[in-house]
Amino acid sequence: MFKQVNHIQRGLCQTTFSRSIYLHSGKRVRGLKRNPEEIFKTESGSVYGTTEENLQPLKTFLGSSYPISDNLLLQVLTHKSFGNGIKPYNEKLAALGSKLYNLYCLKHITNKPTTNTETAINGKNLDSIGMPLPRALGEREPLAIFAQVNKLNTVMFWKSYNHNLSFAQSGELKVSGQMMFALIGAIGFSHGKTAAENFIEEKLIEGTPSIENIANEFVEQNIRRGDI
Amino acid sequence: MLRLSSRAGARACANFRSSIVKNLSSSLYFSSSSITKHKTTYDNPLEYGTYKSNIYTHRLPESTAEQSPELVALHARLDLPKAYSLSTLSQALNMETKSEGLANNFGLNTLGKSLLSYYVAEYLLIKYPRLPMPIHNQAIDAYMGVEPLSSIGKSWGIQPDTNSKLEKYLAQEPFFMKYGKLRYLEETSKEEVKEDGVIELTGDEISQIEQNHGRYTPSEQDAYAASVRSIIGGLYTHTDELTTKQFIKNHILSRKLPIEQMFQFQQPMRELVRLGDKLGFKDPLEVRLIAETGRLSSHAIFVTGVFVGTEKLGEGVGSSLAESKTRAAVNALMGYYLYSPISSDGEELKVPSDEGYKFEGIVGLGDVAI
């Protein structure tokens, strides 16, 4: 609906057009703009925004050692699938976080004291690289399980094609893993690489349960299923 | 020119058989460590220091590596620190999977790839935080993909070991010479008579082409890229991460990359409108004609600007109104995507791995769906 308003200013006629837009609620109708209050909401009913309710699980997990701004935390929790990607989402954070985490894991496994004197290089045992557990440690699945166990993924802004499916089938596993990479990336961006590595060491490796135990169990499950 | 061997069918069968054997042998990773035929054994999967390969059982003695003039020359050419042993450098050049127990570069390659991935990604994410993800990935590939790393390897003067045992014997080449060369070919393929411009593909290579959507990467290119990554991994094992980072900066990130040439817009105006929505512009996006000349002539020129309120986002010149409008939208998008923040002192921003890093830049908000 268009309204035409005429203003007479210093003898000139200035025309201003204003329009009221209909915001559609309910099922999607092609060509109609949807009501943001309705679409920026998760399946479980959490409303998008930097509210305490949304950010509390991550803030509690981070503690006072690794503070992150509310806007960045909200970006960590937001996946590309939410609201057709119109809100800031965590792809770039995860891009840094995944590389940082992978590098950390490799350093972690190769820098352990070794009994392998024949092929270790300068005390670093590279024979474990590529083996099932060391490889799984750097992947997103154990991180996603870690997020689920620690209830870090209770509020995530994402959209599945079917939220009623299982953790893995609905895509929640992938989104949770990406969220964890993004969290590591956000600490890397905010406090630097060393702080992010300390975070991984303190909260994931030495966490309860440890990410190493989760990865080990994940590998054993895959072996039992015959996936590896 | 690619030619399929007449023996391709037989080879494919052999490959299939070998893949079955591989699949069977891979299960050996997880059985009890008391059986000696295991590829790798360990006391406990979580005790990484106890992993031990039963196939690659030893490293090249330093005294043998020192005899290879090519290794010594490569070490000096790359200005590697003294702590970097020649045996590790030789291991970085060893891609062989069927050598007589000599450790190959698999571990070094993985380590080097991880180091490269992190430092290249960190540099790009801080320097160009708003790059669309496909361009970001292309830029990473342009810095550390197989092709650039392969050409870097060649520029370092690494030579492949292509001579067969017979040729080496006839040329009276000492045995230690090969330890300074890139070893990726099996003895049987070295003996094959090669024809210039003709590449004979194995069954594995044909299936790889199908997986790579018709792209063929020669095994030599792969080997060169792996050797460069392994040399970087080797540097980390002998020195520290800071030295490795400096090496990556000097050899990989120092190369000029024309990122602005990587863009190609299908619907720039539409993309700009969506971007405006994402960034929450209060005023609507407007296209305004700034100047024109010769509208009725055969050489008309129009200057168009894209505005949000009083802010001009981009400007374009074209011989028609539509062209100038599209150019203005592209100009605005390029200005946004190629934005590179600077520090409060006007210097280049520090990256998260730098000493005294302070977050002053921005984090990319993600691409817009068009």
What attributes does this structure have?
heterodimer; A: 228 residues; mainly alpha; two-stranded antiparallel sheet; 47% helix; elongated; B: 370 residues; Ribonuclease iii, N-terminal Endonuclease Domain, Chain A; Double Stranded RNA Binding Domain; 2 domains; 3-stranded antiparallel sheet; two-stranded parallel sheet; 7 strands; disordered N terminus
Describe this structure in words.
The complex is a heterodimer of chains A (228) and B (370). With 228 residues, chain A is mainly α. In chain A, helix 4 crosses helix 7 (172-191). Chain A has helices at 36-39, 52-62, 70-77, 91-110, 132-137, 140-149, 172-191, 193-205, 211-225, and strands at 2-9, 12-19. The model of chain A is unreliable at 1-5 (pLDDT under 50). In chain A, 43% of the residues are buried. Chain B contains 14 helices and 7 strands. Chain B has helices spanning 8-26, 62-65, 69-77, 86-92, 106-127, 133-144, 146-155, 165-170, 187-191, 203-211, 219-238, 241-253, 268-279, 321-337; strands at 2-4, 40-41, 52-53, 199-201, 285-293, 301-308, 311-318. In chain B, helix 13 (268-279) crosses helix 14 (321-337). Helices cover 45% and strands 9% of the residues of chain B. Chain B has 370 residues and is mainly alpha-helical. The model of chain B is unreliable at 1-37 (pLDDT under 50). Chain B folds into 2 domains: 6-260, Ribonuclease III domain (Ribonuclease iii, N-terminal Endonuclease Domain, Chain A), CATH 1.10.1520; 263-337, Double Stranded RNA Binding Domain (2-Layer Sandwich). In chain B, the strands form 3 sheets. In chain B, strands 5-6-7 form a 3-stranded antiparallel β-sheet. The chains are: A mainly alpha (228), B mainly alpha (370). Chains A and B meet through helix 4, helix 5, helix 7, helix 8 and helix 9 of A and strand 3, helix 5, helix 11 and helix 13 of B.
